[in-house]
Amino acid sequence: MKIGIPRALLYYRYHTLWETFFEELGVETVISPPTNKGILDSGSIYAIDESCLPMKIFLGHVEWLIGRCDMILLPRIASLGRQGSACMRYQAAYDVARNAFRGRQIKLLDYNVDLRKNGGQIETFLSLGRAVGKKRAQSLHAYLAARQADKAVGTAELLHQQDLLRGDRCRILVVGHPYNVYDPYVGGPVLDCLRALNTVPIIADIVDRREALERSANISSTLPWAFNRQLVGAIDIYRRYVDGIVLMSTFPCGPDSLVNEIVVRRVRELPVLNLLIDGQEGSAGLETRLESFVDIIHFKREEDITLA
Amino acid sequence: MPETKVSFPHLGSYCVPIEYLFTRGVGVDYVTPPPITRRTLEIGSRYSPDTVCAPFKYNLGNYIETIEAGANTLVQTGGVCRLGYYGELHEQILRDLGYKVRFVNMARASYSNPASFYSEFLSINPDLSLKRVAAVLTLVLKMVEHIDAFESYMRNNVGFECEEGSFDRLHQDFLASLSAVESHKELSAISKLYMRRLKELPINRPKNPLRVGIIGEYYTIMEPFSNHFMEKSLARMGIAVDRWINISNTLLHNPSKKVITHIKDYAKYDMGATAMFSIDKALEFAKKHYDGIIHVKSFGCTPEIDAMTVLQNISNDYKIPILYFSFDSQTSETGIQTRLEAFYDMIVMRKEDRK
What we know:
The structure holds 2 protein chains of 2 kinds.
Chain A: E1 2-5, H1 11-25, E2 28-31, H2 37-46, H3 53-65, E3 71-79, H4 88-100, E4 108-114, H5 121-131, H6 136-164, E5 171-175, H7 178-181, H8 188-196, E6 200-203, H9 209-215, H10 226-238, E7 244-250, H11 254-266, E8 272-277, H12 284-307
Parallel strand pairs in A: 1-2, 1-3, 3-4, 5-6, 5-7, 7-8
Chain B: E1 5-7, H1 15-26, E2 29-30, H2 38-46, H3 54-68, E3 73-76, H4 83-96, E4 102-105, H5 115-122, H6 130-157, H7 166-178, H8 184-200, E5 210-216, H9 218-222, H10 230-236, E6 239-243, H11 247-252, H12 256-262, H13 275-287, E7 292-298, H14 302-318, E8 322-327, H15 333-354
Parallel strand pairs in B: 1-2, 1-3, 3-4, 5-6, 5-7, 7-8
């Protein structure tokens, strides 16, 4: 049996967990390739025009996997309990894919997280194991190994980022959902451009998640979405170490449409760029905006030095 | 400290029971926001983020206009979608604009702790009597049910009224008479009286009229201005209109558990907010052989966009036409009318073909 995993949406947050879990169980996986124009184009055919760019990309990845595996892992997240809720897109993604590809003979593998109704992550993985025909003890063992691996990766990333916070190079905090920031087709050009402009991008997603959740209340107290809370908390953690903030969103993002506005209105001491990516081709516009943003930061730094 | 004057954004005719709740129950003055106009939407949009959904912009426009009309305490509810975060940003925008008002954000209360709602109400009036609020609240909920029943019948028959405007006039009289009721008994008597008068209004209803069901997102479907008075346009074309979404059906008698079993062929999980209801009702209208379905939402409404993928399958399976509308602050009136007329022509032709 071969499990297909779409390299989109929640993949970028959970891939170490999923990949290690299946590897430990000896289940073969196939992961769709990094997003390219072909994937976006095919996703756009299946998505409602008005859908957000990540949803189009997600459906493109699912489409790519059809015929290349026996089952496709389709994660759904409704509630993360006290951490908050998830964007409704995660809540609906499973059924949207099911309806969009009706008649294509695909078998879906559920990964359903709803802490209001079901148990925690561990139950979710146990039922995932059951669905691929593994015994409870095997799944439990695989899950624990996956947790271990995920934690190790997280710690290594965090240590690396903490190194970047030292020294006096210009640092820019990039705040965006993992599926945007790490997708080479979406966030890739932004990170490349920032590096080419001789700045160091600091990724808000790489953070002590528990601490970030708590500190988000310093900026916003009624934020309902867990993933946005983490990003906002990361702003509070990193704001002292960076020279500017890029809010990277894709069009049209429900949660970000409100959260970015709160950040712009409440984080006043740093230059903030609200960057909305719509999947249109051509990078000239993006480069111009980032260049002028970095210019502003340099002017501000020089001014600060003169004043000091 | 000046006297408290509370206000809450418009949603269809519900300003009547809301005013009743605050004046009679909470015991404070209430300012009904001025009726929604182009200006409401324009100022709301001017100070809102571009890509936020239209209801946010309408609410903000209501707040600014109601402050101009004398309100000094604004209330926002929580909600399951973006609505759950409206309040904090509305408050921030109003503060940044320099308005000095009290903002009561129910999103701060939590459903797992009902007492927290009480403390939010206490912040509006510290001398609040819990007993009185509870008594008035039950009356207000009944009032909502009567209004919904009245409007349901109206929506289905107004297209066939013999005297133009007769339904609207009676509707206005009914709403006006509600603020004077003192007891459950009076409320029920007045509602019965008006319901009888409504059913006595002369109509010229064909035996087998065109029937259209409306589904979609919570605010846009219930606030007529935000859907460009879609139901009225349909009535003028001589169509019997049905819609299930209203406060009684969704909040007071929430059928979520049943709904998920109705739609299990199309959706395995709850897809969020009103998406399940849209799918469930589309399926019901389709099975009852309605002539068409109209889906309305504000631009970018995530759960309703997701529901559309399913609606397309229902449309194919049951051969029922569905017209999709997405409203924003820039929607053109002519565009809407043209699409409605084309839809009308199509369902008329289909009906004739079937004869």
